[in-house]
Design goal:
It contains six helices and 13 strands. It is an alpha/beta fold and 236 residues long. It folds into two domains: 66 residues, no CATH class; 152 residues, Zincin-like. The strands form four sheets. It has a four-stranded mixed β-sheet with strand order 1-2-4-3, covered by helices on one side. A four-stranded mixed β-sheet has the order 6-7-9-8, covered by helices on one side. The protein is globular and about 65 Å long.
Length: 236
């Protein structure tokens, strides 16, 4: 694919521009730093792209303000007594060293017991907990997909859970496949359902336009408040 990449500055904002063989212009602001990226068809002139960014400066600055106001959790160290979140609830990490297969258990609605072999380092502890989050989500996503397949009249052929840096979910409309962000294991269950529904609606409407929002309004009234809750605390 023929592509051209360069950077422009507009009102003190650096914008990464990628011109390639696509049909529409796409503008995105990515957390956590507010990086701005503009994807454009090759046919659009450079000056037209600059004018497009200028026309969207208010939108870009609004997203940057939202990111700056978000509460960010410190990087996890996976040490004794550290706070960890599971589906919207806070737990204290309790590390149990034992010569047995690693596992994670919730105890007394307060503790997250992490069983690891003696001498396990931070990376191993992180690996065990992330795999536990993955299995937790995998146990809940199928019923949500089944529910919304019936409600929306669509069919998912495949789905999965993976670590994602900038999105809570994604949808490949051609393959009818959706992906959920592993970090959703830390969010309340209704946030997970919102992301599942959001991605599945893309099978009926690819773009985040008025029709897309109308479908969300129809199937999940008040979805805006769920989205705000989803983005209120950033765990990335």
């Amino acid at each position: 694919m023929n592509t051209e990449q360069y950077q422009i500055e507009v009102s003190g904002i650096d914008v990464d521009v990628i011109r390639k063989d696509i049909k529409n212009i796409h503008l995105a602001v990515y957390p956590p730093t507010g990086r701005v990226r503009l994807s454009s068809p090759l046919s659009v002139k450079k000056e037209s792209l600059r004018l497009f960014v200028i026309s969207r400066l208010g939108w870009i600055k609004k997203h940057n303000r939202n990111m700056n106001s978000q509460i960010r959790k410190p990087e996890r160290e996976y040490i004794q007594g550290e706070s960890h979140w599971v589906q919207g609830q806070r737990y204290l990490l309790n590390i149990v060293e034992k010569k047995a297969a690693p596992k994670v258990e919730i105890r007394n609605k307060k503790y997250l017991d992490l069983y690891v072999r003696p001498g396990s380092d931070k990376s191993k502890r992180e690996e065990v907990i992330k795999e536990w989050y993955r299995e937790l989500l995998k146990s809940q996503i199928p019923s949500l997909i089944k529910k919304w397949e019936k409600e929306l009249g669509v069919e998912i052929t495949d789905w999965g859970v993976r670590q994602m840096k900038t999105k809570w979910g994604s949808c490949n409309t051609d393959d009818r496949r959706i992906w959920m962000n592993l970090e959703l294991g830390k969010k309340p269950k209704h946030c997970l359902e919102y992301v599942v529904l959001h991605e599945m609606i893309h099978l009926k409407e690819r773009h985040h336009n008025e029709r897309f929002k109308a479908l969300l309004d129809k199937h999940m009234p008040g979805w805006q408040s769920v989205r705000e809750e989803l983005n209120e605390v950033v765990y990335f």
